[in-house]
From TrEMBL, chains A, B:
Gene3D superfamilies: Ribonuclease Z/Hydroxyacylglutathione hydrolase-like. This is Ribonuclease Z. Zn(2+) 2 binds at residues 66-67, 211, 270. Its EC number is 3.1.26.11. Binds 2 Zn(2+) ions. Belongs to the RNase Z family.
Amino acid sequence: MEFTFLGTSAGTPTRARNVTALALAPSGPRPWYLVDCGEGTQHQLLRAHYSVMQLRAIFITHIHGDHTFGLPGLLTSASMLGRTEPLDLIAPVQTHRFVTSTLENSDSSLSYPVNFIDSEAADFRWQDEHFAVTNVALSHRVPCRAYVFTEQNLERQLRQDRLTEDGIEPGPSWGELQKGRDVTLADGRLLRSDDYTEIPRVARRLIVAGDNDDPTLLAEASAGSHALIHEATYTQDVSERVGPWPQHSSAEQVARFAQQAQLPNLVLTHFSSRYQSGPGGAPHINQLAAEALRHYRGELFLARDFDSYRLEKDLTLRCLTTDNP
Amino acid sequence: MEFTFLGTSAGTPTRARNVTALALAPSGPRPWYLVDCGEGTQHQLLRAHYSVMQLRAIFITHIHGDHTFGLPGLLTSASMLGRTEPLDLIAPVQTHRFVTSTLENSDSSLSYPVNFIDSEAADFRWQDEHFAVTNVALSHRVPCRAYVFTEQNLERQLRQDRLTEDGIEPGPSWGELQKGRDVTLADGRLLRSDDYTEIPRVARRLIVAGDNDDPTLLAEASAGSHALIHEATYTQDVSERVGPWPQHSSAEQVARFAQQAQLPNLVLTHFSSRYQSGPGGAPHINQLAAEALRHYRGELFLARDFDSYRLEKDLTLRCLTTDNP
């Protein structure tokens, strides 16, 4: 399970950070999934190893422009490349309207179908062969969701002891059982895959949250999750100075929650453009890390554009970008 | 009169070229004017010396996404920066609708008024103290315009011979006359600025054209213009292979027209992403220059992102980017 940040800035882009987008892949670049699509996401993709031709679904957390304004360009560029595969667009109804009216008002049409799926539906659930996806309502100025990605179809291991015990000879039926399929033998016996195989590890689960001023809303989803990607727009003192209106979280707030929820891995993102990485008068981005580390003892990461991560089968999270401290 | 290319690619961005946008300034970065606003224009501005705070007006040539999808992000970012100055948006009505519905569907509002002005109006004319702007209908898949920018309020020179002849003593009245203002003397005489000053040079005039498959539509506007910025999406052979549908010009077509119209300066832009500048298998961008040079004997330039040009008072056009051959 790998993901790459295509944008990590809140509200407006900076020279080093684009507005929000995240590429997620079960393994390798095809298929892959996009969570949020700020302006310039298609430009970021030109520098990443994900192609819009292999994109299976887009999940939008909420309607704000820094999470959605890249959609029309990305969709029409895929069309100019000749995409024919259908694409799922999981988003609030207003984002569907934004896309539809933008295509209309720009004389654009798409060479492939877009399936609009309402992310705010009460019974929202999406899945394919790689991921089962649910979502959780967050607290922001507009309805906003966190998406919970749970790995599907984990590789099974044959329980050879039991197969031998029941006198089932090695052969094609073993292969079928390992693929999770039930088998009827020539003698009429029905073998259930679940009886003769086991899944030797836990399904990996990742939460990708949208804008949110109350991380505790993720308490239930966090139980059994192995990594949380959450906004930390400000440090606590700036957050208090700015006041409650923006409805964002501070690094401290998220860190306290992740500690309490015993989340083993936390990646902070969606930083206010006031924080910079270089030398100079602007507050340094590391202030956010320092603040979070005072409240969280798990593995902490600060997202940067184009950093890639892998959530390993042993549930450790590894940043694949070598220069990330 | 200076301009900087913020995007020079047709349809989709490449790693080296963004989709169309051009910054134009009478002198220095304030105020300035934007012609077209493809996705990522606000990102390009982070690397140029123009700020959205000093932007006076946006001119959109036509409704296609590669010329308009950057509008919502640029407008909302200016709002987040606290802009209060009104902004003129000169564009087709559908682009006004695109902007309005996008703001609505993304819970966005602007901290400043946008004046929507219909670029397709029969009597279109816009002006401020720096530029008088008219437009010309082009030929494309949708209504499309070229904008003609004519310098306004040229500096006047006093005709000292005539002032002396008429016994007008040096003093504040000379200054007023030079500013173009008529003056009434203490003795009751009315002095008309036009009688005692002259404008010692021609007003500079620049045409910035949108997508167009018939450059000859610019014949009338080209008389008295000093530079033309025009698309050259393909070479002639590719243009013939692609067929008439895209309704773009070849380098040859534009060059032939510019030669016939005796335009002294021609800048080609809006290149198909098939043309590249680096080594490799892709057709080289210089093919477009080579083709144009076979038919045009004026000053020819191929636009690149971030290249800046100055149309001097002596009507020469100079690329200010030192590494441009």
